[in-house]
Amino acid sequence: MKLVKGDLVLIKTLDDKTTTCIIAHKITDDQFYYCYSLESGDYKFVYIKEIESLVCQGFAPDIKLDRDLFNVDYSYYDLSSYIFPYIPTFDYLFDDDIDEDDS
């Protein structure tokens, strides 16, 4: 099933309910879609296997992306560097087995 921006699709949720979504953007070779849910009014990422069927092709071809998702300020990067610090270690350069007198 080839889906494009603006298609109306039926999604099966984790709690075995169905909802309708409009595809706003395709991500990573038809594996994930960024969709707008008609019932909740929220944007969400949808995996291809969650899509039950295509309801209507070209339902809303002029749908806009939620740009607030991509507006990331410095606090995001600051928090990310705090939670996931990268500290390179060079322990292998300082091996305890090497005797300095063996030169």
Secondary-structure blueprint:
Blueprint: E1 8-12, E2 18-27, E3 32-37, E4 43-47, E5 51-56, H1 74-83
Antiparallel strand pairs: 1-2, 1-5, 2-3, 3-4
Structure description:
The protein is mainly β and 103 residues long. It has a single domain (8-83), classed as Roll (SH3 type barrels), CATH 2.30.30. The chain has one helix and five strands, in the order E-E-E-E-E-H. The chain has one helix at 74-83, and strands spanning 8-12, 18-27, 32-37, 43-47, 51-56. The model has no long low-confidence stretch (mean pLDDT 79).
Keywords:
single chain, 103 residues, mainly beta, SH3 type barrels, 5-stranded antiparallel beta sheet, 1 helix, 31% strand, elongated
Largest sheet: 5 strands, antiparallel
Shape: elongated
Label the structural class.
Answer: mainly beta
CATH topology: SH3 type barrels
Strand order of the largest sheet: 4-3-2-1-5
Radius of gyration: 24 Å
Just give the CATH class.
Mainly Beta
Estimate the mean pLDDT confidence: 79
Q: Strand fraction band? A: 25-35%
Kindly state the percentage of residues in helix.
Answer: under 10%
> In DSSP terms, counting alpha (H) and pi (I) runs of 4 or more, how many helices?
1
List the helices and strands in order. Answer: EEEEEH
Number of domains: 1
For the record, the CATH architecture stands as: Roll
Span between termini: 69 Å
Number of strands: 5
